[in-house]
Amino acid sequence: MISSIVFINHKGEILIYRVYKDDITRSETTQFCAKIVATKENKECPIINIDGTSFIHITIKDIVVLATTKVNVNVAMTLQFLYQLVKVCRAYFGGEFDENCIKKHFVLIYEILDEVMDYGVPQIADADLLKKYIQEGGLKPELMNDVEKLKQLTSQATGATSWRPPNLVYRKNEVYLDVIESVNVLMSVKGTILKADVAGSIQVKCLLSGMPECKFGMNDKLLMQREPRKPGQTTTDKGITIDDLKFHQCVKLPKFDKERAITFIPPDGQFELMTYRITENINLPFKIMPVYNELGKNKLEIRVKIKSIFEKNLFATNLAIKIPVPKNTANVSTNSAIGKAKHEPDQQGVIWRIKKYPGDFEALLRCEIDLGQTTNQQPWIKPPISMEFQVPMFTASGLRVRFLRIYEKAGYKPTKWIRYITKAGEYLHRL
Amino acid sequence: MAYFGNNPQRGELQELYADLNDLNFEKKKEAVKKVIAYMTVGKDVSELFQSVIKCLEFNDIEMKKLIYLYIVNYSRQKPDDAIMVIQNFRKDVRKSENPLVRALAIRTFGCLRVPKLNEYLIEPLKDCIQDDDPYVRKTAVLCVPKVFEVSPDICPALLEQLQKLLEKESNALVLANLIQSMREIEVVSGKQLINLNQKIIQKLLLAVDECIEWGQIFILDYLATHNPQDSKQAEIIIERTLPRLSHINPTVTFCAVKVILKYLDFLDNGELVKNLCKKVAPSLISLLSWNQPEVQYTILRNISLILQKFPILFENEVKVFFCSFNEPYYIKYEKLDIMVRICDSKNFGQVLNELLIYLNEADPHFVRKTIKSIGKIAITYDKALEKAVSILVEFAKNVQQPTEPVQELLMQMQLIYKKSKQMYKYDESLKIIYSIVDYANEPESKSACAWILGEFGEYIPKSVEKMKEYIDNFQMEDRLVQLQLLTSAVQLYLKYPSQCATIIQQLITSAKDSFNPDVRDRTYIYWRLLSTDPEVVKNLVCFNSGVVSNFSKDLRLWETQDLVLALENMGSISNLFHKLPHQLYKNIKIKINNQHDVKIYKGEEKPDTQPQPQAQNQQDGSNQNNKKDQQQQQDIDLLSFDEPPSNININNNNNNKTDVFELI
């Protein structure tokens, strides 16, 4: 499988070097560092073959995390493993992952590398689980000598519910649900929608005692069609069509496949229960209507009208509309009734920011752009207008959580909280 | 503590030596850390071997791990010293009550990789494979291939033990590692080790549900290499794999897709196949928008394979492959490539509209590839010709510099005119394209310009003067351009015999002594022919009008008979390079595909005049061998300039041409 894992800084210096199989020499890796990392040549492509050695890598900020191999490995898995490795490191370093951290904690990283991979084969790489038996400065001697505890630990690690330790106790049992939707949309110059989808995620913070079994339900059309109608109840809500769902490892997938029921024993604390993708009947929260005019050789005018398409009692927050301007822009004068618009040269655009924006409302921005002299004869390549926003208590897909039932043998009644928010993903309008 | 010091000087090693032998525990530990730091930056600290291993006396697990790391790194350089640690390992494996310590010892023990030390390892390893603790077992199982690689002759008993374990093991994680380790041994030894029967398949399928994500991948990857006995078994495996499509790890999903697609071939029930395709498609599409671009890239590189065998999966889904403005270019290139492959006689309009936008991108390579893609679509689909030409002409209007895309534009226009000569009239394309010929600076694009000049001489004002300009620089040109100039000049001569008489003479004079035999030969052939029978020349060099069918390039990437094997290896490095494993790795045996008919899964067939490239694909097992030849033939057609002779009708009067040649 994988021959070695290497961390490299942007200069091409090796920070961490762990070999799993000795079919690779250090000089092959340094060759990669010198040829690819330091020269930044072809670095973008995640897999590079040099003389029969494959270099599979990802780049996190300035750090290149590399796996080398000489056999026909599963590349997707290798990349996924590298990402997971970075995630584990971050969990240990309080979210950080940079050269300083790596140098400071190199002993710990070697310990982690020893555990997450054996003979080039990925092993247990769950940060919460690893923290139970790998700690900076070594484990407490009490644990090392407590054979019972150790047995419990290894059986959790190798068992079917490795993500949840037994015997958790909370005085107050609570569950927080966050439904977060990112809307991706691409509109053509004329305003027709070329591509629109919602990438949703349900985040759960779980503070529950014992081994609770949870059942979770949404207004999923396929699920609601299966449910028997209650007599006397006429629902107008037919549910929504979900293109695809992906679940956290705790969700019992065979059960979902058969009954479309989402059941799970949750991990402790924060986790992402599921992600989903929806392409049908999306309520786009904003419409963008740009007009582009060339007023002579050195003057441009861009007018952008935006319209919010959601209920009046809701508000969008933190709007930022980025209107691209040419590189040789000398001066921009803006005019709008709401928010603040400013030319930001480092962003090569006018950023129009609005703190709070009501539903069903229109606003207009007019930008007059004076262009400076330029020697560059190339016509300006107009990037699309992009938009950022958040709309709390709104889902672009129309998704609603219908229930979250929790069964635990202690029979407690947990408190449940839920929030919805829709954000802009790639919200683009070609100019 | 200095992490990245420079070369450990002699003095520094002395200092470390002293610290390692210090009585103070903390000092020792710091020294060990320093040693590891030196090792990381690639400095040789093997001299300290004995002092380092002495530190193993302390029961400190952090230090133990560091020392083990050191030993693994230098054991092969110092096999005699390494023997001294054997006792330590054996003690840990046998006596320690702590499963973590037992596992750590056996794991490290296996990594020593010194043949004579491995003998000491066999007994403890056997114990560990039978350990009560699954954590130790999963580690021990992976230790076997380590030993096998170095000393296969002492392993038979261990292999037997693994086979027995496969029968009785119930822990999912251990099973997953077991499968992976047995596969590794199979690769090294070239012998089959896993005897897959109904019972074991059941077990593995059960383990997939309970195992960590990596384990799921190992098992699914393995199942994809297996051929089921019958339709029933295939159905069971597919049914049990389906739930994995909803796993959050994209690789698990992708492996599940692989297993399902592989087993589809073995199903009898056509309706079931259709339903399964409907289930697989959305999962696969979700993977394409996965937020890690590297993972997205690996999936994209496998799409052409899926597209070729399962066109049904991406029916009406071309939008999925549209590029976003902010995507990295390596993703955009892949998407562009797929868009051309997925393009058909129904959706070409949509694709061309999208490609039109990419012509505004900043990266010249990308724009070039876009132009090439537009050209490919135009040549493959007759109906797309007009739209493609108007896009390219519009682009040509804004050309001001000899950029890379311009070169491609000229080359693609040449191909389009070759396919359908009538296109020169469309949108005044000839006039606009001819206006940019001076921006040609690559041999291919220059030769395209020369071709256009010869072919359309009668429609281009002052074409003879332009030809003279080219011929004046004849000696400076690339061989490719020279060859084309010869043909084009003769073409022009046939059209304007009197005006071209002098330049043809000039050309022949300068070309007949060329150092390049091809150029020389072609010159003599034309010369002889022109002086004997000009009608023959006409048939040779002039091109008919009307649409040339069968001009399309084969857009299929894989040989049809390779599809099954490629599918088994979906996600692997070889597939990423669009190769079969044995083509990339010399030590992998060629696996021969026993299935004669490769099934292709298409959507509903609608009557369509334009044959799709994939459509020819079905059930053509018999003429497999011809396919390669045909493809080569087509490639040659696209490159060569001598088109098939046809009924040429040139209106110019060529009666008085022979006397010119008598003068030469």
From TrEMBL, chain A:
The keyword Cell membrane applies. The keyword rRNA-binding does not apply. CDD domains: AP-2_Mu2_Cterm (cd09251), AP2_Mu_N (cd14836). Coiled coil: none annotated. InterPro entries: Adaptor_comp_med_subunit, AP2_Mu_N, Clathrin_mu, Clathrin_mu_CS, MHD, Mu2_C. Keywords: Cell membrane, Membrane, Protein transport, Transport. It is a peripheral membrane protein. It is found in: Cell membrane; Membrane, Coated pit. One of its GO terms (cellular component) is endomembrane system. Residues 172-430 form the MHD domain. PANTHER family: AP COMPLEX SUBUNIT MU. Belongs to the adaptor complexes medium subunit family. This is MHD domain-containing protein. The lineage of its organism: Eukaryota, Sar, Alveolata, Ciliophora, Intramacronucleata.
TrEMBL record, chain B:
PANTHER family: ADAPTOR COMPLEX SUBUNIT BETA FAMILY MEMBER. Belongs to the adaptor complexes large subunit family. Residues 609-635 have a biased composition (Low complexity). InterPro entries: AP_beta, AP_complex_bsu_1_2_4, Clathrin/coatomer_adapt-like_N. Keywords: Membrane, Protein transport, Transport. Residues 604-655 are annotated as: Disordered. This is AP complex subunit beta. It comes from Paramecium sonneborni. GO terms for cellular component: endomembrane system; membrane coat.
